[in-house]
Predict the structure.
Amino acid sequence: PIGRTGSGTTVAVVDTGVNYTLPAFGPCTGPGVPAECRVAASVDLAANDNALDDLGHGTNVAGIVSGVAPDAKLAVLDIFNADGT
């Protein structure tokens, strides 16, 4: 609906991670840092490989959410290994 921007909400993105350093997510130096960063949390639940997003898909999905709900925060869960499993 028109006028709903996601303000006061957090959307969970369960995918391949998120490259929160991209401008679409705000001036992020880390999840939730600074406060204007749209990515409130980024958790690697698969084998931690220190990659923000192995395949780019999660970043794409998070970007779509950002466009649809521009005032929502994002909590991104990386559940895939680097090979997509």
Observations:
- The two ends are 36 Å apart (CA to CA).
- The longest strand covers residues 10-15.
- Helices lie at 57-68.
